[in-house]
Amino acid sequence: MFIHYDKEGDYLEIHFGKPEISYYEKIGRDVFQRRNEKDGKVRSYAIFNVLKRKQVVPKDIELEVPEISAII
To answer: pLDDT-derived band of residue 65, with 50, 70 and 90 as boundaries?
Structure first.
């Protein structure tokens, strides 16, 4: 798993496994998931405006985390 936060862009991305050809799909306000084009499995999540979320009423973000054995 690789987690990257870009402070300037206020952007968080969580990757599972190696980079693959994939596409983004919006799953919520400023929340996207990236799916593998071949098998449709989730490979990462991207969340925009992370720090701005602290200024509003907290809201949970539910994410599907793939099993490690399915990634390797």
So the answer is: confident
State the residue for tokens 């929340």: 31
Question: The whole model's pTM is what?
Answer: 0.71
State the Cα–Cα distance between residues 35 and 43, nearest whole angstrom.
Answer: 5
The helix or strand, by DSSP H or E, that contains position 20, with its residue range, turns out to be none
What residues does each domain of the chain span?
2-54
User: Given strand 2-6, what is the order of strands in its sheet?
Assistant: 2-6, 11-15, 42-48, 31-36, 22-28
Give CA torsion, residues 18, 33, 23, 69, to 10 deg.
30
Which residues partner with 11 through β-bridges?
A: 6, 48
